[in-house]
Design brief:
The chain folds into two domains: about 200 residues, Alpha-Beta Complex (Quinone Oxidoreductase, Chain A, domain 1); about 160 residues, NAD(P)-binding Rossmann-like Domain (Rossmann fold, 3-Layer(aba) Sandwich), CATH 3.40.50.720. It contains 14 helices and 18 strands. The strands form four sheets. Strands 5, 7, 8, 9, 10, 17 and 18 form a seven-stranded mixed β-sheet that branches. Strand 12, helix 8 and strand 13 form a beta-alpha-beta unit. Its main location: mitochondrion.
Length: about 450
């Protein structure tokens, strides 16, 4: 059996301790040169002191001017950068927000949401051209993960109130850079970019959004903003599960047998294309009406989970090297029996009790319970000859760089179920809530009608 990878216990601290890769790393610079080559707007360094706005804020410095380090080395006072700093400039923007947790009626269009300001030198302001919805938006609207996310928003309890409202939902963004922090040297105003904003930050269902430059990448050249907005969150979630946690990549995936459970959703459609682009044999599980789509995306075998007992259908096939589970529930009880024993085969699930435990038990007890659960399951299955893993969304500009290369080369294409104008965000949430979508629900933010 291949030497086991250590169980991803650090993922349990993801929301509180994760730091994205540095934009200043050699790998990031390599991708920046490739992605920026030939662009009219380029990606050259922005001179300091060219922004507008006044005031001061707490910023993170690394001791190297104009460069962004992996982890903060010290705190420095930096000017608060705002692209509309003139007293006469408009100070509000339209944004879909919630003021409490609940169902669709809590969504409210506010035209008085404050324009975002750059508080840290590694941030950029992006004008949102398009956004998209993900199942996590439905969950966050109802209060899912509020305990963990509020801890991440204010870990030192500095704020005088724990109220996170008004809260803007939406994770995906495709748009144009409007302003850059002082240490951002790989983007400048006018660059077309895409990103997935972490769930503890204000979301993208608004006219402007602030993001860390580490979370941003140049938009694929071949996609419109509407198409590009459908990919970042699901793409990074699948990338995290398959590459970061599962260990698959372009050099070791060829010929492996991969099973995707829940293949017709946003993460599933991306995952099918990704492992197929890396040369895997792909078995996709979905309903019959999505089988044509799965074949178009490259699946070698398509199993209809409604046509009979799914476990029995899959047992008739050769064993698998890797399983990605987007469904959870009872599938975990039998899915690991479909893996090749003592060969390094891995099962990765995206359905975990991490945030639920923290909501139910509190931060300390919730993390303890989560650690016990993942630890016991990892050891249990390791003794049976297979690897058991959890995976989570990880915001990462460098990973988006690699995804953009795959998109521009034609190996991955966006799968969009429906596009809604900005004024119909509540309808888009209802559409997503119906379930069984074939791809993503996208919001055209520029079209506000």
């Amino acid at each position: 059996m291949a030497s086991p990878r250590p169980p991803p216990l650090l993922l349990l601290l993801l929301l509180s301790a994760w730091a994205p890769p540095s934009c200043g790393s050699p790998q990031r610079r390599h991708w920046r040169r490739q992605r920026g080559a030939g662009r009219a707007l380029g990606c050259g360094a922005r001179e300091e002191g060219t922004g507008t706005g006044t005031g001061t804020g707490i910023g993170i410095g690394t001791g190297t001017p104009g460069r962004m380090g992996r982890l903060p080395a010290l705190l420095v006072r930096v000017p608060v950068r705002c692209f509309g700093g003139s007293p006469r400039a408009r100070s509000a923007m339209p944004s879909w927000v919630i003021d409490r947790y609940g169902r669709n009626e809590v969504l409210r269009l506010s035209r008085e949401m404050a324009l975002p300001a750059i508080q840290f030198p590694n941030e950029v302001v992006v004008r949102v051209h398009a956004a998209s919805l993900n199942p996590i938006d439905l969950s966050m609207r109802s209060g899912y993960g509020a305990t963990a996310l509020n801890m991440k928003r204010d870990p030192l309890k500095i704020k005088s109130t724990e109220n996170e409202f008004p809260l803007t939902l939406g994770r995906d963004v495709s748009g144009v850079v409007m302003e850059c922090g002082l240490s951002v040297s790989y983007f400048k105003p006018g660059d077309e970019v895409w990103a997935a904003i972490p769930p503890w930050k204000q979301g993208t269902l608004s006219e402007f959004v602030v993001a860390s430059a580490n979370e941003v990448s140049f938009k694929p050249k071949c996609l419109s903003h509407t198409e590009a907005a459908s990919l970042p969150y699901v793409g990074l979630t699948a990338w995290s599960a398959i590459n970061k946690v599962g260990g698959l990549n372009q050099s070791n995936c060829s010929g492996k047998r991969v099973l995707i459970l829940g293949a017709s959703g946003g993460v599933g459609t991306f995952a099918v294309q990704l492992v197929k682009a890396w040369g895997a044999h792909v078995t996709a599980v979905c309903s019959h009406d999505a089988s044509t789509l799965m074949k178009k995306l490259g699946a070698d075998d398509v199993i209809d989970y409604k046509s009979g007992n799914l476990e029995e259908q899959l047992k008739t096939l050769p064993l698998f090297d890797f399983i990605l589970d987007n469904v959870g529930g009872s599938t975990e009880k039998w899915a690991l029996d479909l893996l090749k024993k003592w060969s390094g085969a891995t099962y990765v699930t995206l359905v975990t009790p991490f945030l639920i435990n923290m909501d139910r038990l509190g931060v300390a007890d919730g993390m303890l319970q989560t650690g016990v659960t993942i630890g016991s399951k990892t050891v249990k299955h390791l003794l049976k000859g297979v690897h058991y893993r959890w995976a989570f969304f990880m915001p990462s500009g460098p990973s988006l760089d690699e995804i953009a290369e795959l998109v521009d080369s034609g190996k991955i294409q966006p799968v969009i179920d429906q596009v809604f104008p900005f004024s119909e965000v509540p309808k888009a949430f209802l559409k997503l809530e119906e379930g069984h979508a074939r791809g993503k629900t996208v919001i055209d933010v520029v079209n506000k009608k």
